[in-house]
């Protein structure tokens, strides 16, 4: 990436040499910051939702805090810092869902796809802005709607947009300190009745935040139950609904919840502790698939695979999840998934495991099971 701050070597995570690790909105924002000379050497800069670290790397000579809900995005930032000659701790990153508790002088926001996440972040920002904090947001024009601008306007203050540059726009926001009312409505929750009543809490970025996904529902209705299941994994757990019901039906099992979203893991942990208090053993892991989980250590892996990961779309993530599931399963262990029928995962699982049974299907979804031999 060639910008006024320098020329930088940037890679996506997972690595994809065919796709750029920055977008026109990053370039636009970095050019704008260089034009207006707003960043002082000692000022604190907070960057939100920097997908692969392009902004943080280009501005790494400043005192930068980067907040991201995505573990993969954080990893991309670390890799890209190293690739450009910086130590990994040159930029401070979050290890949970909270913002850094410091006053910041400048905030850069890459506008996220999920409006609820932006809404939550704007409320959280109000506590760390001072009178002179500058706020700039950037995104591709197709992702900036009236509803997006209304959020800035109603939570932070007067908001304007710039002309477009390569189909991206900047959003310039001034803090109106008389706007103080209201607070983030997240996490919010819904009630779920399966074997019992659960209250499912969801932080702002979560998949199917306001109701149970119909694919997840079908898997809940076909959850396996076996006294031999001692170690169960909910991979890509989101709010943890699959693991919760698996735990209830398999009382001797310990659970492992894994997701690359910090907010997902915070939600899953809150939901599990709400349902079982400390009576059940469970581990909650923010990470990439099941990296770090020992081979042949698990008896059942449950997945409702994502179709998007960060900005990539397709079945590459599902394939990585299936391969990791096979690796961590003990002999005789089971992978059970739900997926859209049209995705053709049956053939993929058959190839990977040598077997795949269709447990059930409806007009849209299919439940598939493979056993590790
Ligand atoms: C379709 S949602 C399923 C959520 C939940 N299991 C359910 O059924 O409601 C897929 C989840 O996979 C997570 N995910 C995406 N990429 C991941 C990765 N590389 N490692 C772990 N989790 C990932 C997403 O954050 C998301 O929570």
CATH topology heading of the largest domain: Rossmann fold
What's the name of the CATH homologous superfamily of the largest domain? Answer: Vaccinia Virus protein VP39
Q: What's the tally of helices? A: 10
Structural class: alpha/beta
* Distinct small molecules: S-adenosylmethionine
**Low-pLDDT residue intervals, each spanning 5 or more residues:** none
- Which range does the strand content fall in? 25-35%
Please tell me the overall pLDDT: 96
Radius of gyration in whole Å, from Cα?
A: 22 Å
- In one word, what is the shape? globular
Q: What's the CATH C level of the largest domain?
A: Alpha Beta
Outline the biggest β-sheet: 7 strands, mixed
Helix content: 25-40%
Span of the ends, CA to CA: 47 Å
Secondary structure tally: strands: 20
| Shape-level CATH architecture of the largest domain | 3-Layer(aba) Sandwich
Overall number of structural domains: 2
Write structural notes for this entry.
This protein is α/β, with parallel strands linked by helices. The protein has two domains: 2-173, Vaccinia Virus protein VP39 (Rossmann fold, 3-Layer(aba) Sandwich), CATH 3.40.50.150; 188-371, Vaccinia Virus protein VP39 (Rossmann fold), CATH 3.40.50. It is built from ten helices and 20 strands. Strands 5-4-3-6-7-9-8 form a seven-stranded mixed beta sheet, sandwiched between helices. A seven-stranded mixed beta sheet has the order 14-13-12-15-18-20-19, sandwiched between helices. It has a two-stranded antiparallel ribbon with strand order 1-2. Helix 4 packs parallel to helix 5 (146-155) and helix 9 runs parallel beside helix 10. S-adenosylmethionine (SAM) is lined by residues 207-208, 213, 216, 236-238, 241-242, 258-261, 264, 288-289, 304, 306, 309, 317.
